[in-house]
């Protein structure tokens, strides 16, 4: 039923483009578009960038010897032949591992260097640090901020995001100018809005399923910038636009971008806020 309704809306939109209200949406590639490229690899970032993508989400952990590595999972087993735990491995050990597709594991300083040569990029640096003790967390947050921001282009937008409030508080304590976003793994609600406001952040990411347009408008009225996830493809993108989201995560970022340019010309895909 959902597919039929969305398709019907899309067909109506195509027949009356002139009647559409212009929209600006920050479209970004989840783990550098994980269903189109090998996630979180430099090949994925380069491949999507070359296709026209200008927004990204990525994940950062810290190795046993204090280096920041791009990895969503605690272990490497899903994407590589290794079953090593990222936080228990040294950077030298990780650097020897290759993904199932033959790519090297990417480190945060390598990604930051690559991004430094590309202006007007939106990046969500998701901090996978909820299990770290206070000392380790402070080291992690300080190193991540300095690594990411050292050569950030003037017109790029870098966010430091987390499900963990302690991590966000620590980052803000160490670097008050950091742009922070709270991620909550459920639909947008009054309680989610309250949590973000109580934390003192201006950005909030909630799950798309179960979120209403009225609640998105309420969050915006409260001064929040709303991001919705997960976004698997075209249907999720259409739904997110209809809900009024400011930013939309996508696992098929290139496919969605090409569809939107052809069939949703009233939507501007890149908006830095």
Topology of helices and strands:
Layout: H1 2-15, E1 23-24, E2 26-30, H2 42-51, E3 55-62, E4 68-70, H3 91-95, H4 108-116, E5 122-127, H5 134-149, E6 157-162, H6 165-174, E7 180-187, H7 190-199, E8 203-207, H8 213-221, E9 225-229, H9 234-243, E10 247-250, H10 253-263, E11 267-268
Parallel strand pairs: 1-11, 2-3, 2-10, 3-5, 5-6, 6-7, 7-8, 8-9, 9-10
Antiparallel strand pairs: 3-4
Give an overview of the whole structure.
The protein has 273 residues and is of the alpha/beta class. Helix 5 (134-149) packs across helix 6 (165-174). The protein has an eight-stranded parallel beta barrel with strand order 2-3-5-6-7-8-9-10, surrounded by six helices. Mean pLDDT is 93; it is low at 3-19. The protein is globular and about 55 Å long. The protein has helices at 2-15, 42-51, 91-95, 108-116, 134-149, 165-174, 190-199, 213-221, 234-243, 253-263, and strands at residues 23-24, 26-30, 55-62, 68-70, 122-127, 157-162, 180-187, 203-207, 225-229, 247-250, 267-268. The chain has one domain (24-268): TIM Barrel, CATH 3.20.20.190.
Q: What is the number of domains?
A: 1
Rough outline: globular
Q: Could you tell me the strand content as a percent range?
A: 15-25%
Q: Gyration radius, to the nearest Å?
A: 19 Å
Per CATH, the architecture is Alpha-Beta Barrel
**Elements, N to C (H/E):** HEEHEEHHEHEHEHEHEHEHE
Q: CATH first level: which class?
A: Alpha Beta
First-residue to last-residue Cα separation: 34 Å
Side by side, the strands of the main sheet go 2-3-5-6-7-8-9-10
